[in-house]
Amino acid sequence: MTWPHLVRAGFGADQMEQIVDNLDQLGKPTDRIVAGLDHAEWELENGKMLDKAGQPVADPCSWVFTALARTGYYRRPKGYVSPEEQAAKDAEAEAKAVVAARQAAEQAQFEAWRDGLSPDELADALRGHPGGPKDAWLKKMWRDRRN
Questions:
Q1: Is 112 within the bounds of a domain?
Q2: How confident is the model over 107-136, as a mean pLDDT?
Q3: Does residue 78 sit within a domain?
Q4: Same-domain check for residues 67 and 89
Q5: pLDDT at residue 18 in the model
């Protein structure tokens, strides 16, 4: 279920046992096997499992088995994004969207305040304005009055 393309290619529990046994005999760690399987699955799913000549791998099961049994790892393919990375990117995008929405809401509140000022209130708010953009001064005055 986790690696359906690899399973369809013939990779299964027998290969996993052989890989772990081989790595144990070689004294190599087994902690990167799952990441390697994720990488190989992504390549198969996206048609990117290619040999050194750039041709599709004829026997993906043997290809993956050999890499994992020899080194305990299958290299990370170009373009691969792990679920953890994607979750972090999604969280970042959501946080940026929240910030942008808050800024837009604040801007709308300021504009409503500014546009609702009478001429006398506007003149009062601009008292002491040193020059430059009036909206920047008015926004400062609006923030000061809100707090």
A1: yes
A2: 94
A3: no
A4: no
A5: 97
- List, in order, residues 6 or more apart from 85 with CB less than 8 Å away: none
pLDDT at 26 over 90: yes
| Residue 22 CA, distance from chain mean position | 34
* pLDDT at res. 1: 78
Could you write out the three-class secondary structure of the chain?
CCCHHHHHCCCCHHHHHHHHHHHHHHCCCCCCHHHHHHHHHHHHHCCCCECCCCCECCCHHHHHHHHHHHHCCCCCCCCCCCHHHHHHHHHHHHHHHHHHHHHHHHHHHHHHHHHCCCHHHHHHHCCCCCCCCHHHHHHHHHHHHHC
- Separation of alpha carbons 65 and 44, rounded Å: 14
Same domain, 63 and 106: no
Query: Do 112 and 66 fall into the same domain?
Result: no
